[in-house]
Design brief:
alpha/beta, ten-stranded mixed sheet, globular
Length: 322
């Protein structure tokens, strides 16, 4: 067990956290690492911090590029990575000292293409703010079982939670210009085969920024989750992956429900929202999906009948919770 692991870190506006992040990678019990810091045109002091960190350890490489988003940064890292294995860590997160040794051991002992662990949520002071419920279960999933699982929004679907065999990734790259890109990447990665070991150990510390994506605030991520779900569904239809169709329909309706629940009433006339509403109208048969919760079904059916009234009630409710 001495193969090179390339760890790709997209860096943008994380000067407060970057040293902690990189130090946690440098401290790994598995030392044969290539650490690729991708400065994605960060406007703060991150570019200089990256260069200083590279002087600290010869395993660190730095890429400076124009801003293109997290997917673009990860792709830039993938393009130069020399490791037999690929890992991802976000620049404002950090990892347990044995995470990569643990993941590599799972892959090599179980002859799988990917190994995945779980995470803790932490605040800006590195305090654990939520204890996620994880069952003490370790399991191997083939590609069909894994796709069915994440299309039902079960388990973890995040690049940073996993270690990948580089040969399994091949020439596949993340879609630029989108959020929630992890699910698209993993769908295309696994749709034609592969096996993953899913483990309940929590070894990644994920920073929850209260000023960024929130369950109570509409963001571009909600736009991407709908678009990505539809893209997956269309690919399933084109390739006649009949066994995934019911799960993909659930994913679309689930994401459309979240989208319409959170989008401000004043934004409902924009082009994308109108596209989403028309898609819902044209595909309302998906509301009969057996995996969709009653709450989602009732909300979407009510929205189709009384969109303005439904949004008025929702916004009153959300404003009361603030």
């Amino acid at each position: 067990m001495n193969n090179l692991i390339s760890v790709i870190v997209p860096v943008y506006n994380v000067e407060k956290f970057l040293v902690k992040c990189v130090d946690s990678i440098l401290a790994q019990t598995y030392t044969n690492l290539e650490i690729i810091l991708v400065d994605d045109g960060s406007p703060d002091n991150c570019p200089a911090i990256c260069d200083e960190l590279a002087k600290k350890d010869s395993r660190i490489k730095v890429i400076h590029k124009e801003n293109g988003g997290a997917s673009s940064a990860r792709n830039a890292g993938l393009d130069i990575a020399k490791g037999e294995y690929i890992g991802f860590v976000d620049g404002d997160d950090y990892i347990a000292k044995d995470m990569y040794e643990y993941l590599l051991n799972l892959i090599e002992k179980n002859d799988v293409d990917v190994a995945q662990i779980q995470s803790f949520d932490v605040d800006e002071y590195y305090n654990i703010i939520s204890e996620k419920e994880t069952q003490n279960i370790s399991t191997i999933l083939d590609n069909k079982a894994y796709i069915a699982s994440f299309l039902q929004c079960k388990g973890t679907i995040a690049l940073w939670a996993s270690l990948f065999q580089k040969d399994f990734i091949g020439d596949l790259r993340l879609k630029n210009g989108t959020s929630n890109e992890d699910i698209l990447f993993e769908y295309y990665l696994f749709k034609n085969g592969g096996r993953i070991f899913v483990d309940s150990a929590q070894k990644y510390y994920y920073y929850q920024n209260n000023n960024s994506i929130s369950r109570q605030r509409f963001t571009k991520c909600h736009i991407s989750t709908v678009d990505n779900a539809i893209e997956i569904y269309n690919d399933i239809l084109v390739n006649n992956f009949a066994e995934f169709k019911v799960y993909a329909e659930f994913l679309i309706m689930n994401k459309i429900g979240n989208y319409l629940y959170l989008i401000p009433k004043n934004d409902m006339k924009n082009n994308h929202c109108q596209f989403v509403i028309n898609y819902l109208k044209q595909n309302k048969a998906m509301l009969n999906n057996k995996f969709l919760s009653k709450k989602h079904k009732y909300f979407l059916k009510l929205f189709l009948l009384f969109p303005n009234l439904t949004k008025y009630i929702v916004e009153k409710y959300l404003n009361r919770k603030k």
